[in-house]
Amino acid sequence: MATAETGAGAPVPGGRPSNAADASGPASARAGGVPAVSMRGVTKRFVGVVANDHVDLEVAPGEVHALLGENGAGKSTLSNVLTGLYRPDEGTIRLFGQEVSFSSPRDAIAAGVAMVHQHFRLVTKFTVAENFLLGSGGAYDAKTAAQRIRELGEEYGLPVDPDANVWELSVGEQQRVEILKALDRRARILILDEPTAVLTPQEADALFATMRRMADDGRSVIFISHKLQEVMKVSDRVTTLRDGKTVGTVVTAETTSAELARQMVGRSVVFSADDTADRPEVDPDRVVLDVRGLSAEGVRPQSSPKGVDLQVHAGEIVAICGVSGNGQRELAAAIYGIRRRTAGTVAIDGVQSRQKGPRESTALGLAFIPEDRLRTGLSPSLPIHANLALKGYRRPPLSRGPFLDGRAIRARAEELVRRYGIKTPSIDTPTRVLSGGNVQKVLLAREIGSDPHILIASTPTRGLDVGAIETVRHLLMDAARAGTGVLLITEDLDEAMALAHRIVVMFEGRVVGEFPRGHYDIERIGLLMGGHTGDREGAA
Amino acid sequence: MIRLEPRLLRPKWLSVAVPVGSIVVALVLGAILITVSGNSALDTYGRILDVAFGSVQSWSDTIVAATPLLLTGLAAAAAFKMGLFNIGGQGQFVMGAIAASGVGLALPDVTGFVSIPLMIAAGMLAGGLWAAIPGFFKTRFGTNEVITTLMLNYVAANVAGYLIFGSMSFWRLTTGSGQVFPQGRPLSDEAVWPAFGGGGLEIPLGFILGCMAAACLWALYRYTRFGFEIGVVSDSPEAARYAGINVPRTGLAVMTLSGALAGLGGASDIGDIRHVLDPKGLGQTGYGYTGIVVAALARWNPLAVIPLSILLGALANAGRALQGATFPAGLVGTLQGLLLFCAVSGEFLTRYRVRVGHKRPLSAAELEAQAA
Amino acid sequence: MDRRTLLIGGLGLAALATTGCVTNKGATSAAPATAAPGATSTAAATIKAAWIYVGPINDGGWTQSHDEGRRFAEKELGSKLITTYKENVPEGPEVAQTIETLVKDGNKIIFATSFGFGEAMLAAAKKYPDVKFLHATGVWHSEQPNFGTYYGATEEAKYLAGIAAGKETKANLIGFVAPFLIPEVIRHINAFTLGAQSVNPAAKVKIVEIKSWFDPTKERQGADSLITQGVDVIVNGGDSPAPGEAAKAKNLGWVGYDSDQSANFPDIWLTAPLYRWGPYYVNQIRTALEGTWKKEDYYGNLKDGFNYLAPFGKRVDQATRDLIEAKKKEIIDGTFQIFKGPLKDNKGAERVAAGAVVSADDLQKIDWLVEGVS
Q1: Choosing a second label site near B52 at 20 to 30 A (CA), which of A73, A140, A213, B216?
Q2: What's the N-to-C CA distance of chain C in angstroms?
Q3: Based on the domain organization, do C65 and C209 belong to the same domain?
């Protein structure tokens, strides 16, 4: 069980202890050597928005440098400038002291800058080795590619089977492939965009060890995140962005998470769901969601729900924890009715669902926030008012007979925008141009605004910044307080523990553990999520 | 070095300046071409204007030429707007013509107040069903509708050919000159569609129906639940499924609607213009394909299809008026192509910005050397 | 309308035209000009004439032969004639609009050379009584005084070409690329077959219908499919020289149609039934200029020189040439009838009794193929 304890401070194989708290920091950064990356006064404007406003960023060779900021703070724009996707309107970029000007990502790759995106750029139907070949510019044939993958994987603790098809791999393994590709291209500057969002705590720790080892090799690792704990754990220095401007760069060991949070949000953030006094009250006599023996087809065999039993009471928040791809998504879809159930029953507030699809579920009082909010939960190019009407347009007051009531739709949209504090120029704005937090607010406004009996929220805070996460969590709590049962699907254990009355762990489509509040055991839950299980376990 | 960057937002002035600009560019390029060919550019342009819009008669001819393009254009707009690539407007048009002429011939003595609405209904039904076949295969089995609709164009052309050339069908004229050369039976005067207007201007019924259809289609897409669903399905099928919209049924309905509009075009071709089923003429004109061009230029907006069908109808008529012993058909085609090309590239410029020149990026080798 | 009388009338007129149209215009002038109400009776200094073509002027066939006629007229009439043409005009509402433009441009005599233009031409004739409308291959024999039709008995030349092919074939199998199996083409196939069989009783004709008048791709494919079926002579029924290309590839004899391609295919060329449109055009325009124009439904033939055979290729020996020349004389004299019984159709049924002759009217709507065609 040693892995569970492995943190950034633990010795990594073959390396020196390199805790972020090590006051010495990376030698070169302290020695005033030539920085690997030096961005000065970088400004990037889009129509009506200054995404980066004279941003400065300096990263030393051999350093893990965190880039911290809320969504919309300009982290992505900055990394897109550094990887050649955008051309800055002002400012200079120097790599190892030499001014560069990239006209395409290809130039950046040639210059040794690589990025591991949040959404992987792999061809899922190809094997790992074939994906490796794709970007290598003909440096390998299939055999040498496999060889190289094994070598690199061994060197950096990133084991992957070169002959496996990418679609067969877990998300964590796919990420390893992306990192290996970057390493193979002799990336001297590696940017990781929110890399832990899809990982279990154990996987995340393994990744941190890899990052540290790459830094020890003299590479610069830029770690984009909004998770304060991780930043504190892994980075040497932190640069914080807010509203497109640099707030400052600090040595991690000389700061605190509270200070970083204040820098990031511009105010003190306190989210304390542990406040028992204010916790939503559960009505034990009213089961708003009753799932019995539910099975459904999965995208992969491991991800098909197999005989799931699950009850949620009015006012109760139940969290389903699991690494992505273990059937949570399919379970939610099967309950909601967009995935065919092969066995089992679903009742909503005592009424049996007859598996007629989303319309029926909606009518029964089931609201659903899907994982892919901007394409599934919302129609991205349609204006906000249309998205807010996406569930209610069939019935009065939003329509009369076959005709829409445009005035009613707009009035309701105005009201929801006000009530949920959605920040948008107007209700006619296409939904896709909103920030991640506001996109999620549109979705929540529609779903919670329909006063459902039960709300299924699939990773509702993933990819959001601290401020938006706080808002979303408050909205979920408020919904539960109003008597709605909430089924929260999350990969973030901290979130589950903060919000839920009960935590259910899923692995390979089965419920493998259940923990009531007060009996949460983070290590145990983490192990169950990782598949270390015999029988169904629970402390109840 | 020239680079293209997508525009995130489109400034308002562009949507006016670009069409005007592209027409000016087309006219200037065209003028050079005409002058080189030894003709007078000014005379040529004057003649185009005169033939297209110069007199009441020109207007009538232009509108007659625009009528089939209006209806096939609407058919394409209806389907393409939803991301359904209905290339089958031509076949649906032909099937509409077959059905409408069949009804018209079956009811020679019935008053037009009865037979004409029945012809319209038959044309729309036939076109709609013809489009529903690929629509069904698309939505049920995921068959590529580009291929199936295109194939059905050939089938429709052969059905029409068989009715007139290959058999002694109900549609075929078996007396008089029909014995000498195979041809369709002409409609009775009752079944010929009326034209409207006055002072020499003749607007075919089909054009008026087309304008009404454009308005209905526009309203359908904008003000109805069905239109809302189409909007969601075309933007994100996942979101549509999530919202409980029956995506296959919506797709099938849109295909059928698209086919019905093309079928109405075929009915109008029979009732307004030809008055006989003429497979050869139908194949030669290819209205179904030109309709796609009309709809694309209209950016799938049904209301914009009306002026664009008039424009393309005028252009086609002017083209035939221009050509002659000293003005080769090739030059006419080049001029028409130039105009369309400028329109399309103008549209491109509203979406992308062109950037010229910047510093040469460092090569990887140079960077490597720097770092070492 | 009563087509019988009109058709026969048309044929009669054709006979009249034989003397009048081409060789001796005095004959037509002799007819009282005032009898045709639509005819202009005053002579003009110049006239504008226009042609409407269904295909491109360089199609190597039908449209090209008409355009050669147009240029012949230009040459003959010099500065008195200004011509124009519209090519690639579809058969549809476009015709009416094209006619409108031509009338507006001051054209006083308009020729339209595709069957499908007929209705629009007749309608325009009613609308513009002072313009003359002439429709090739047309069957709209109307009373309209400013509307005429023109075509010819091409089956005569087809019969003569059949003799050349009958002599050429060794396999006794000839391939005919037919555009549409309509009476006109059936008539041509039958005449051609009878011609071939007159010198080679074993000769058979295989046909393929390609459903197009001018479509080089389909015509080529049709010819190729005939060749794979064993024919060793190819015959054009449509307008493009593409079947000649197919024949050339296999070094087979080729009978063209409506365009002299002997220079392009010297090794395989036999002959081709051709049309001489020029003199007809000159005659129509000249009489219009002089104010003596008179409505007629012209039907040309070998005798008046409207139909003729292209120069023979080197494959046709002197004996065959003499034979064809002799037969041509008999046809012109009227001593030989092509469609004379006994004739059986290709299913074996007797269609024409021994000694009987198919009437001109029946010939116009013939719908059966003679024995030996398949």
Answers
A1: B216
A2: 35
A3: no
Taking chain B (372 residues) in runs of 10, the rounded mean pLDDT of each run is: 57 71 84 88 88 87 94 96 92 97 94 95 97 93 92 95 88 81 88 88 95 96 93 91 92 96 96 90 88 88 92 87 82 82 73 56 43 42
Same domain membership, residue C341 and residue C207: yes
- Asked if B316 and C90 come within 8 Å (Cβ–Cβ), the reply is no
Distance from CA of C104 to the nearest CA of B (A): 10
C-alpha neighbours within 13 Å on the C-beta side of residue A426: 3
First to last CA, chain A: 24
Give C361 to chain B, closest Cα distance, Å. Answer: 10
Dump pLDDT digits (tens) for C256-275: 998 889 999 999 999 999 99
Q: Does A315 touch chain B (CB under 8 A)?
A: no
On whether residue C373 sits in a domain, the answer given is no
Among B60, B164, B280, pick the best mutation site for testing chain C contact (most C Cβ within 10 A).
B280
Q: Do at least 3 CB pairs under 8 Å connect C with B?
A: yes
What sign results for the dihedral spanned by CA atoms B286, B291, B294, B296? negative
Domain edge (last residue) among C283, C300, C317: C300
CATH assignment of the domain containing C186:
3.40.50.2300
For the segment(s) A276-380+447-538, the CATH number from 3.90.1150.10, 3.40.50.720, 3.40.50.300, 3.40.140.10 is 3.40.50.300
Whether A526 has a pLDDT exceeding 50, the answer reads yes
Domain check: are C198 and C327 in the same one? Answer: yes
Distance, CA of A81 to CA of A89 (rounded, Å): 10
Q: Nearest C-alpha of chain A: how many angstroms from B168?
A: 46
CATH class of B46-325: mainly alpha
Judging contacts by C-beta atoms under 8 Å, the chain A residues touching residue B244 are 357-359, 362, 391
C75 and C138 in a single domain? The answer is yes
Interface confidence, given as ipTM, is: 0.78
pTM value is 0.73
Backbone CA torsion sign across B102, B106, B108, B114: negative
Instruction: Give residue C135's domain range.
Output: 3-152+275-300
Considering only CB atoms, which chain C residues are within 8 Å of B180? 139, 182-184, 364-365
The Cα C78–Cα C66 span in angstroms is: 18
In this structure, the answer to whether residues C193 and C134 fall within a common structural domain is no
Q: How many residue pairs bridge chain B and chain C with CB atoms within 8 Å of each other?
A: 84
Buried b (16+ CB within 10 A) or exposed e, B23-34: eebbbebbbebb
Which of B179, B278, B325 is nearest residue C183 as measured by Cβ atoms? B179
Nearest by CB to residue C211, choosing from B57, B161, B180, is B161
User: Rounded to an integer, what distance in angstroms lies between the CA atom of residue A23 and that of residue B41?
Assistant: 81
Name beta bridge partners: A369: A457
* A439-474 confidence digits (pLDDT tens): 999 999 999 988 899 999 998 988 777 778 888 988
Q: Where exactly are the structural domains of chain A?
A: 2-22+33-112+187-265, 276-380+447-538, 382-429
CA distance C211 to C224: 16
- Considering the domain architecture, whether residues C163 and C15 belong to the same structural domain is answered as no
- On whether both C287 and C262 belong to a single domain, the answer is no
Side by side, which strands form the sheet with A237-242? Answer: A113-116, A189-193, A220-225, A64-68, A237-242, A245-251
| C59 and C165 belong to one structural domain | no
User: Distance from A149 to chain B by nearest Cα, in Å?
Assistant: 23
